[in-house]
Amino acid sequence: MSRIPEPVQTPEGPTYEGRLLDRADEEVVDQGAAFDIRTLVSRRGVLGLAGLGVGALVLAACAPSESTTSSTSDSTASTDTGGSSGSTATTATGEIPDETAGPYPGDGSNGPDVLEESGIVRQDITTSIDGSATADGIPLTFELQVVDLANGSVPFEGVAVYAWHCTAEGEYSMYSSGLEDVTYLRGVQVADADGKVSFTSIFPGCYSGRWPHIHFEVYPDVDSITDSTNAIATSQLALPEDVCATVYADSRYPGSSQNLAQTSLSSDNVFGDDSGALQLATVTGDAGSGYSASLVVGVDTTTTPSAGSAPSGGEGGPGGGGEPPSD
């Protein structure tokens, strides 16, 4: 990015692009995610890019480098736990189930809060926000299309989506030993006019006690992202078995093959209620060039979110009732 100008001092306090800073005593780059997003939204008219949607502007302004985008097709729910193909649809078939955020959310509800950091609004989440560390693994781009069920299943434009997942070794940034100061595999995007957000990442590993998954929270607007209690949906995306089996043959995923063989969607403590019927992503691609995953996420704001702490026995993974992969 280009050098950010200094704030302008006014009688009301320091401002940037005509707006008061949320944190008057700190620099522009340290104002937090909500200020970042409002800044990008305000640039839509200046840049003449209104037709691209807010999500595209966030990518253009904050992505550290050009990255792969996911398929533009929309997924539907599938109960086939072994396949990676699926039909397409433009609406969700039901409300996404509320699920635990687990013990490693990084949203301030259980210790660390990455959502307070400037730079968390980004499409490419393979690196730490400060660029000091990069997650290794098979490339994965995943796309979520958020649908507003309370208003006729229209695209839920403008909602903010925070997504996070484990490393190839089954560990979580900000929590696992040695990764406390690492922020990779976490990021925020804002849904465009089609209700879509997209993240460039790596395929997550499989640790003991859990089916391979990606966490996400949906927030109603750009100002509510820094308070986890404002989430209107908290859920998880499940990855199909045959794709996981192929990925976990890679040496960068130690122990994942064994852990995958010891669990199933029907026995998983999160997806087990219905084998992930509304949460199983459609995945295309291959291990050589990487994969693209997509899922339609139906959100009903007329229902009360019920996601809470980790289920009995823990979320799994390091320190959460399960064990990370081992050789």
TrEMBL record:
Lineage, broadest ranks: Bacteria, Bacillati, Actinomycetota, Actinomycetes, Micrococcales
Domain of life of the organism encoding this protein: Bacteria
Domain Intradiol ring-cleavage dioxygenases: 111-208
Protein name per its UniProtKB record: Protocatechuate 3,4-dioxygenase beta subunit
PROSITE patterns: TAT (PS51318)
Compositionally biased residues, Gly residues: 311-327
One Pfam match: Dioxygenase_C
Biased composition (Low complexity): 66-95, 301-310
Chain spans, region Disordered: 66-115, 301-327
Family annotation (InterPro entries): Intradiol_dOase_C, Intradiol_dOase_core, TAT_signal, TAT_signal_bac_arc
